[in-house]
Amino acid sequence: MENYRYPNLKNVKDLIYKKGLANIDKQRVPLTDNNIVEQALGNHGILCIEDIVNEVATVGPHFKEVNGLLCPFTLNKPDNKALFGKKKLYKDGGDTGNRQDQIN
């Protein structure tokens, strides 16, 4: 991530539970059931959504397989007031850049 620091476990968990979609047979399927995860990644020892959260947050040994299953997140745009003016680095009083510990 270019503009931000790494999120904590709670933020990763919230994103995956709220916006997590799996790519199964070229279809986007919401991650609502552990059976979906077990059928797709059970041979790697990943049996539930909590295992996916752990692999993504810690970049575990099966991160590549989990990342291949997950679809990209679609996030909401920020308010018009959130990003304005010329782009300056965050440390210089702007909006872009590494927010260090303030991301969470």
Any overview of this molecule?
This protein has 104 residues and is mostly helical. The chain contains 4 helices and 2 strands. It has helices at 9-19, 34-41, 49-58, 63-69; strands spanning 21-24, 27-30. It has a two-stranded antiparallel sheet with strand order 1-2. Strand 1 and strand 2 form a beta hairpin. Helix 1 crosses helix 3 (49-58). The longest helix has 11 residues, at 9-19. The two termini are 14 Å apart. The model has no long low-confidence stretch (mean pLDDT 81).
Secondary structure: number of strands: 2
- Across the major sheet, the strand order is 1-2
Distance between the termini: 14 Å
Overall radius of gyration: 16 Å
Q: For this entry, what is the oligomeric state of its chains?
A: single chain
Low-confidence stretches: none
Percent helix: 25-40%
Shape: elongated
Number of helices: 4
Strand content: 5-15%
- Decide which structural class fits the backbone: mainly alpha
InterPro entries: Ribo_uL30_ferredoxin-like_sf, Ribosomal_uL30, Ribosomal_uL30_euk_arc
GO biological process, one term: maturation of LSU-rRNA from tricistronic rRNA transcript (SSU-rRNA, 5.8S rRNA, LSU-rRNA)
GO molecular function: RNA binding; structural constituent of ribosome
